[in-house]
Amino acid sequence: MKTIVLILPALLFTTFVASAGSPSADEIMTKAEATASTEHKALFVHFDASWCAYCRRLDAFLERPDVKPIFQRYFVTVKLVLMEDEKNKALENLGADEWFMRLGGPDALPFHAFTDARGALIVNCRRPTGGGAGKNIGYPDQPEEVEWFLQMIQKAAPKISQKELAALETALKTSEPAHEAEDAASGVSARWPLLRCGRERPQTRVFRQSGSRSGLLLRDQEPRSLMPPTALQ
Prior knowledge:
This protein has helices at 9-13, 25-39, 53-63, 68-74, 96-102, 143-156, 162-186; strands spanning 42-48, 75-81, 111-115, 121-124, 126-127, 135-136, 199-200, 206-208, 216-218, 226-227. By secondary structure, the chain is of the alpha+beta class. The strands form 4 sheets. It has a 4-stranded mixed beta sheet, with helices on both faces. A two-stranded antiparallel sheet has the order 5-6. It has a two-stranded antiparallel sheet with strand order 7-10.
């Protein structure tokens, strides 16, 4: 999945009040770190928002019966919610933006990283590209993205077997056809990968893809950044 670096000044300087029903990111991470330490596991931390279509696909992948037992064997999985629009602001975990920055953000969603039991970064979803910080693979559905995702897993869980890695690779490669109809219905197009992550920052004029309900596309040949829906209001 092609993603572009996200510039979010508001993410860095604005603090939102979390609702009573949404624990803070620190609370979530503290509990996850304690579990990971006791069970001698790493953490898989993924950043999420309700408007992010491909975050839902990552969720579905993690819940697959051929994937979930493998992840549970080696990782404690953590989801942190941020960048919600006003009507869903209560879903956010206070302080998730700080963890986002700590683990490699800001960037497009989905964004994910593996950490040790103390929350220290092991590796994130920025695939090395020969220079700079690398490119966020988001949900890995291209061969080079799948390859990097499997390398991430190996770095975080050196004891994982080749058989288990092969099972994860198969799950990633076979999940795509099952989602084609969903993408067509929701307006997410493989021809326009940026739509997978929601909305883009209006650097120049914008237009809506015919039949799309999931985002806007820049007229620039190389769109520069992705923003949550509130950035376009």
